Amino acid sequence: MALGHHNDEKIVYVGDSRVPKRNLENVPPDYSAFPGRSEAFIPNFLLKEWMVGCVALVGFLVLTIAHPAPLGYQADPTNAAFIPMPDWYFLFMYQLLKYPYVSGDYVVLGTLGIPGVAFTALLIAPFLDTGKERRFYRRPIASALMLLSIIACIYLTKISWDHYQHQLELTGTTPEHILREEKAREAAEKAAQAGQNGGSAPVDPADLPLVQADDPAMSLMEGAGCLQCHAADLKGQGSVPALRGTGDLHSKEELVDIITNGQNGMPAFEGNLSTEEIDQIATWLALQKAPTE
Amino acid sequence: MFKGIYNWIDERLDITPMWRDVADHEVPEHVNPAHHFSAFVYCFGGLTFFITVIQILSGMFLTMYYVPDIINAYASVDYLQHKVAFGAIVRGMHHWGASLVIVMMFLHTLRVFFTGSYKAPREMNWVVGMLIFFVMLGLGLTGYLLPWDNKAYFATKVTLSIAESVPYLGPYIKTLINGGDIVGAQTLTRFFAIHVFFLPGALLALLGAHFFMIRRQGISGPL
């Protein structure tokens, strides 16, 4: 291609580049495509949109500060008591899979069948609803199907959430992120109190020495399986608390009750241990206190 | 001076038509809440994009501390949440933003559906929008595992067993996203890669297509 331009050429380029040279006049386009009061996106409309955006951002930040993002305890694959729970926007599918005709032998209907049909229909909606009419009350089938689906999703989500709450209640479980926050707050309060009394900072119970470590209760606990969760050195692991220093937290009667009936995902040991054995273990655990100077 | 720089670039690249096309377009009365308050329903698309931008920015800052490996993942999130200055805010924005973006996208979808805006000639834009919806759900699913706490771990186990129950392809899908037989180190790095590279890449491409089409076609007319 020749580098020079002649005036009779139809497209004039900038230098020897492929950018066509145009002379665009600085006039806004004609805003007459729609009836009524149209306005320019920049700057007129965008300024107002920024304001909506700012309000949304402030609300968002308030939510973030009022409710810190939850964090439980580190993943522990051996934790059998944990109740699995997906994020809230997957609950409707999670709940769907709990019904008899879409689980077990028919699980394909629940994983692929119903969600597959629903999401495919949603994906190709414009090719299913091909009429010219746009108003929702003039296309009752499409609108009714959409409304029904929304109601079904809300219903399933609610049922699933209620079921989860019920399960928490039944097993006496506090969700881990709440448990963790409470513990952190208690520790902070204790530290503040210790600071006020001029005492030393609180000690992690796992660092406390065992009192009467050669007591026969220890072998009883080993036999009952206590050490599998509370660790062989009784220092606890993950969300399972240490048994060292238990005497500072619970009386002997409380310990008998916890061992007999279970608590926070810990199973009941009523059948495994006799009343005397439970009494013996609780007596020893109640002795596990921080040493007094 | 800025004008000088602009003119210098414009002379060479002719950039004026590009941004004029994006910026200088008409906002009709029926979508403008300043004229009709009920037109606020047209804001949800913009708010979805706004929160998506927040998600991308907060996510970029989170990766400055996050370590995708089973020993350090939880510890790094813990550190980020409780020790790093404003870490709780950045993580909180990413956590709550993930829910908000789903809410906004849901409302935007309903607006488009009930105003019949997905009808000819905008069918392709609806399909792309639905693909964005699925990518967002995928981002939520993969991001849920990353803090590596019990909630994340056991929810992912459930997800994988559901994926496994798909006939014929199920076991392959499970191996692909699980990276082995158990939910472990491989799963975490795979979910991290999908959450941080694959899906955001797809999301940006789809968003580009979504915005290109809305600019080409303009917003749907009044009912």
Automatic annotation (TrEMBL), chain A:
GO terms for cellular component: membrane. GO terms for molecular function: electron transfer activity; heme binding; iron ion binding; oxidoreductase activity. Residues 184-203 are annotated as: Disordered. Its main location: membrane. It holds the Pfam family Cytochrome_CBB3. Residues 31-159 form the Cytochrome b/b6 C-terminal region profile domain. Residues 211-289 form the Cytochrome c domain. It is a multi-pass membrane protein. Keywords: Electron transport, Heme, Iron, Membrane, Metal-binding, Transmembrane, Transmembrane helix, Transport. It is found in: Membrane. The chain crosses the membrane at residues 50-69, 106-128, 140-161. SUPFAM superfamilies: a domain/subunit of cytochrome bc1 complex (Ubiquinol-cytochrome c reductase), Cytochrome c. This is C-type cytochrome. It comes from Paenibacillus sabuli.
UniProtKB/TrEMBL annotation, chain B:
Pfam families: Cytochrome_B. GO terms for biological process: respiratory electron transport chain. Keywords: Cell membrane, Electron transport, Heme, Iron, Membrane, Metal-binding, Transmembrane, Transmembrane helix, Transport. It is found in: Cell membrane. It comes from the Bacteria. The chain crosses the membrane at residues 39-67, 96-114, 126-146, 192-214. It is a multi-pass membrane protein. Residues 5-223 form the Cytochrome b/b6 N-terminal region profile domain. Gene3D superfamilies: Cytochrome Bc1 Complex, Chain C. Its cofactor is heme b; heme c. Signal peptide: none annotated. GO terms for molecular function: electron transfer activity; metal ion binding; oxidoreductase activity. The main subunits of the menaquinol:cytochrome c complex are a Rieske-type iron-sulfur protein (QcrA), a cytochrome b (QcrB) and a cytochrome c (QcrC). This is Menaquinol:cytochrome c reductase cytochrome b subunit. It comes from Paenibacillus sabuli.
